[in-house]
Amino acid sequence: MKLYVSVDMEGITGLADHTHVDSSKHNYERSRMIMTEEANHVITAAFDQGCSEVVVNDSHSKMNNLLIEKLHPEAQVIVGDVKPYSMVQNLDSTFTGAMFIGYHARASMRGVMSHSMIFGVRNMYINDVAVGEMGLNAYVAGYYGVPVLMVAGDDRAAMEAKQLIPNVTTAVVKETITRSAVKSLTPAKAGELLKEKTAEALNNKNLVKPLVPPDHPLLRIEFANFGQAEWAGLMPGTEIEENTTIVRYQAKDILEAYRAMLVMVELAMRTSFC
Question: Of the candidates 14, 42, 34, which has an alpha carbon nearest to the alpha carbon of residue 98?
């Protein structure tokens, strides 16, 4: 049994605002330690449940946050930027299942530090389905026939996961008060919960089906302002929908849609707000 674990940061226990997840801020180093411990709880439980291989993908910001020297020695780690498939790099059909740890709600929704890739995105859609990072990543997993067995993060991320993926196991380590305030478990209690839920998810793996993406998906991204849409619209094959900040791209499959999304948001970040 081979497990893929994508670890983001905004949904990690006790992390409430940008000072916890921005490498230039004072809380970041503490947050890295909690993030690494949280990953270890899942890895340890996975091996205890009979997994032969656990691959962990550092999936936040520049993707070099996990303290590799503190990780479970048997885990394999994907770290660094640029990754062609970002938060799901190296995920393929050889995996029994995937788990998303430290995840958050999509942009424009209530939830701790909710967003979709960049803070300039209001909404993303695959055909008519509104998705965030979680949904896009689950679709890529589904392309390879891999089910998302567990999502861990705040309560709103758990709600989003259940709407997308029937029978998914969720581990709620903190509850949303506002977008930058939480009621959180302590890391010790969160660790107990994560181990319990990882075991539960692996035992129930046959109850979860992959989130199969549509053939030839239409990717639509709504940006916060027109300048961002203009930058994203420089990518060949894109089109700005008239009188909106929505940029659309007709993809041949979900893998192409995912990479198109990465290019579009990177371009959009070049927009000046001055």
Answer: 42
The candidate with the shortest Cα–Cα distance to 61, out of 142, 133, 134, 117, is 117
**Per the annotation, where are the binding residues for Zn(2+)?**
8, 10, 60, 104, 133
Taking the whole predicted model, whether its pTM rises above 0.90 is answered as yes
Answer yes or no: is pLDDT of 274 > 60.
no
72 annotated active-site: no
Which residues are annotated as part of the binding site? 8, 10, 60, 104, 133
For residue 93, is pLDDT > 60?
yes
Residues 73, 137 within the same domain: yes
Range of the domain at 231: 218-269
Three-state SS for 88?
Answer: helix
Domain with residue 166: its CATH number is 3.40.50.10780
pLDDT above 50 (res 190): yes
Same domain? For 145 and 10 the reply is: yes
